[in-house]
Amino acid sequence: MSVLLRAAELIKRPVVTLAGEDLAQIKDVVYSSTSGELAGFTLNGRGMFAGPLRKTLPWENVHGLGPAAVMIRDESALADRKALQGETEGAGGAVLGSAVITQSGRNLGIVTDVILDVGDRMTDAVGYEIKPSDDSAPRRQFVPLPDTLSVSGEALMVPDAAIEFIRDDLAGFGAAVEEFRTRLRRSRTPGETTAPGSDAEGPSTPPEAAPTPAEVKPKPPVAPPEPGSVPPAPGSDTPASSPDTPASRSGTEPTAKLPTEDAR
Amino acid sequence: MIRFSDISGNPVMDTSTATAVGKVQAPIIDPVVQRVVGFRVKQSKGSGDVVLWDALAGIGPDALTVDSAGRLGPPSPELKARAGRKFDLLGRIVLSENGHELGKVKDVEFDPADGRVTSLLLKDAFVDGERLLGIGSYAVVVRG
């Protein structure tokens, strides 16, 4: 099972070991710069005056991710800062506040949050919560993302088809993302054997985002992947696949088991 | 099975002198073996405020008994942290290993024969004692 979650909801969530100690709290979410998957977290210390920690938490070391805490096995799950270098620091950095622009140059709005699909084995960025540029639209909307996309850069490009799958609330959004991605996959199949990393809609090739509104400053996205050369091998960066770390495996808590008063 | 709330505040009686040498304050639980390994005692007449499970002469409905006040002593070095208030189970939040909050520990039920923790009682749920993974200063963590 998987759950949709706003990335902002993770921020400040405590990082707790299985021994019950809170070692840190989430400072920010870091995305893989190539696939848009969650790469890990930067951390703050716990307590009122605690500042940033030198340690980070790579996603593959997360034992469980729930509404109350991010669980890790023990302190060794925290990695050096270097572990996440080269990835894109997300929520606070490049993504929030950027404009979402379709490939044909329509500005959909400003990103206010990233929607994560927290699954058993991997967590993926599946959509943006945006503040629509269109004033007649609801105050916030959800735009689906293609299954691989760079979330770096100042303007975030999405395929035109995304417009059809914009939703006003999270409830039906999971299905919309699914449908949207299926559509993209289908439209791309002729000719190639759908390599799940080589999206045609590489965000690095916007058709001149020239007719964009004033607040958009299209910059060359950070390190565009060489088109066509090496499609990211599926599996090279698959996080959390060690079989004994089922991240957030349940939504159901088998809590009860009434103790009977019988003697053993 | 007895619940800690049934014996909380009960006197610890010295059977050699028939006097109370302290009052039961809190259970000391080792999450690794999932057992009550002793009790913290207040108003102790011994040299410290911990009585180990193995030092008890009896666990009755109205009192714990020891054969001498000397059974109450300071915690051993390895138990020192565990015996402190910092790791008290009662009132602490319970998290599943998946990061869900299940509630706060209201009471704990254990086997008077060997101290085995049979369940944690939360506000409206029971958690099987065997699910206990850790008792930390932030939370009690349980399996599943």
What is this structure, in a nutshell?
The complex is a heterodimer of chains A (264) and B (144). By secondary structure, chain A is mainly beta.
**What kind of sheet is the major sheet of chain A?**
7 strands, mixed
Count of all domains of chain B? 2
Order of helices and strands of chain B: EHEEEEEEHEEEEEEE
| CATH topology assignment of the largest domain in chain B | SH3 type barrels
Strand order, main sheet of chain B: write it out. 5-4-3-2-7-6
Mean pLDDT of chain B: 92
List segments of chain A where confidence is low: pLDDT < 50 over at least 5 consecutive residues.
192-264
Known CATH architecture of the domain at 91-188 in chain A? Roll
| Helical residues, percent of chain B | under 10%
In percent, how much strand structure appears in the residues of chain B? Answer: 35-45%
Largest sheet of chain B: 6 strands, mixed
What form of chain A results from the Cα inertia axes? elongated
| N-end to C-end Cα span of chain A | 37 Å
pLDDT < 50 runs, ≥5 residues of chain B? none
Work out the strand percent of chain A.
25-35%
Instruction: Report Rg of chain A.
Output: 20 Å
Number of strands of chain A: 13
Indicate the CATH architecture of the largest domain in chain B: Roll
